[in-house]
Design the sequence.
């Protein structure tokens, strides 16, 4: 097993290429979640209308989000599948409106469907976040390669319905080794399809096709994922495993626990974080980053760029 990376000297890639711009990874970056769905596990319905979704997006940017992740299909256990027409009806107007209102915003679309990704990029999205790691739609890699967009390849197994359950959560003695191997294969397939290495971010898929013990194992051994050579994004926000660790049953009340898990992941090499509550994540991650940098600078206090 790869030895844990020294938390005092976090390693980061210089930038993430997302279409015609580069998102610098010189500090923790946050993707604020905008769920344009009626049934997401912690905030279903709150941003379901286009107007409320746009207002929420602007609010997240003001709180310090570096990018927005807009999704129109819930991946919670028991969620109803959404066809491509309905998914696009939900997300495309929101992407178009945000691009008009905040032209400089970095926008991600959360989808497993190549047709939705293609329409979203045409509407102004810079990133495609695919929770299947390009497994479920054979056109996805080609669409992303043609667009030159940033991609998030998340680890999961099975269909959208299956990955939200424990149906495929079958691992041997080395859980992180299996997750790492499957992510390596996803990245290899993406590059073969023409996606540039600098456009790829990996997500170990905490809570997806994993029991809580599996997710904890992956977080503990996160440096093994980092060592694949791509920036790593962690999405633990309000998830069941976080609630179990903190003893908090209500998903919407898990933001403090989420911040704690994100700081732990930051110290183990993650540099991007997908969250519901941007304000608390921004404060926690910037503080932790300043302290980690001060340790690596031999005790000299280093203020964060936002200070």
Sequence:
């Amino acid at each position: 097993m790869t030895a844990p990376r020294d938390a005092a000297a976090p390693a980061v890639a210089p930038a993430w290429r997302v279409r015609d711009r580069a998102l610098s990874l010189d500090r923790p970056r946050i993707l604020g979640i905008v769920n344009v769905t009626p049934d997401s596990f912690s905030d279903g319905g709150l941003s379901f209308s286009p107007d409320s979704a746009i207002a929420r997006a602007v609010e997240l940017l003001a709180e310090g989000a570096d990018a927005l992740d807009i999704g129109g299909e819930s991946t919670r256990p028991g969620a109803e599948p959404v066809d491509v027409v309905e998914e696009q009806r939900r997300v495309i107007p929101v992407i178009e409106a945000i691009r008009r209102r905040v032209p400089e915003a970095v926008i991600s679309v959360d989808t497993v469907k190549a047709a939705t990704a293609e329409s979203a990029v045409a509407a102004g999205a810079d990133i495609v976040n695919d929770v299947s790691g390009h497994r479920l739609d054979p056109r996805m890699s080609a669409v992303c390669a043609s667009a030159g967009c940033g991609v998030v390849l998340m680890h999961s197994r099975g269909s959208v319905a299956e990955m939200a359950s424990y149906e495929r959560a079958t691992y041997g003695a080395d859980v992180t080794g299996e997750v790492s191997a499957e992510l390596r294969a996803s990245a290899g397939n993406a590059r073969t399809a023409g996606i540039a290495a600098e456009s790829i971010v990996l997500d170990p898929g905490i809570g997806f096709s994993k029991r809580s013990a599996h997710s904890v194992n992956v977080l503990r051994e996160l440096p093994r994922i980092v060592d694949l050579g791509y920036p790593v994004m962690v999405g633990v926000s309000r998830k069941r495993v976080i609630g179990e660790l903190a003893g908090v049953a209500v998903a919407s009340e898990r933001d403090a626990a989420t911040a704690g898990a994100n700081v732990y992941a930051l110290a183990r090499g993650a540099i991007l974080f997908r969250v519901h509550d941007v304000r608390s994540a921004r404060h926690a991650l910037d503080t932790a980053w300043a302290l980690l940098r001060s340790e690596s600078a031999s005790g000299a206090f280093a203020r964060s760029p936002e200070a």
The domain at 27-296 is CATH 3.20.20.20 (TIM Barrel). Residues 1-12, 43-47, 299-307 have pLDDT under 50 and may be disordered. DSSP finds eleven helices and ten strands in the chain.
